[in-house]
Amino acid sequence: MQPESVQQEIVRITQTAVGVVPADVRCPDEIRAEAGATFACTATVDAQPVTYDVRQDDDQGHLTINYDRLLKVAEVESVVAQQVGSDVDVDVNVECPPADRTVVVNAPGTPIACTATNATDPSDSAAITVTVAADGTPSYTFA
Question: What is the pLDDT of residues 100-118, one digit of tens each?
Fold first, then answer.
C-alpha cells in the first residue's frame, strides 16, 4: 500500500466532511497491506494539528480512518446564535475567534470561547462559553 494513496484519502474525507483541504499530510513511509494493521497519520487543518488513526480492514487497501473531531465554526456560531437569541429574546450574532478559522479541532465538551452580540446594538455583547456534545449538539453558558 502506498502512503500517497492513504494521504489522498485523508485529503478527500477531510475536504468532504468540513470543506477544508488538510496540509502537510504525513503517513509512515512503509505501509504493508495487512488486515487489522493500524498506523497514524498527521496533517494540519486550518492551522491546527490533526491526527488520523488508520486501520486496514483487509489486505486489499480498504481502510477505516478516524480523526480528531472537526467542527465547522460557522455552523456552531449559527446554532448557538439561535439558542441565545431565543433565550434572551433578542437577535444576536455569535463569533468564536479567531475570525479567519473555518474549522476548530474540538473534543466533545471542550470549551470554545465566543462572544454573543446584540444584532441591532453592537455595543451590547457578552462573553459565552460554548461546548459541543459528542452527538454534535452545542450548548452555551454566559462566561
Answer: 899 999 999 999 999 999 9
> Are the C-beta atoms of residues 62 and 10 closer than 8 Å to each other?
no
CA distances from 102 to 25, 44, 92, 112 (A): 18, 13, 20, 14
User: Helices then strands (H, E): number in the chain?
Assistant: 2, 10
Name, in order, each residue with C-beta under 8 angstroms of 97's C-beta and a sequence gap of 6 or more.
113, 114, 115
Q: Which of the pair, 121 or 2, is modelled with greater confidence?
A: 121
**Contact 31/1 with Cβ under 8 angstroms?**
yes
DSSP string, 81-121: HHHHHHHHTS-EEEE-S-TT-SEEE--TT--EEEEEEESS-
CA separation, residue 30 to residues 1, 11, 73, 90, 107 (Å): 8, 19, 36, 57, 30
The span from the CA of 77 to the CA of 116, in Å, is 9
Pairwise CA distance, residues 3 & 8, whole Å = 9
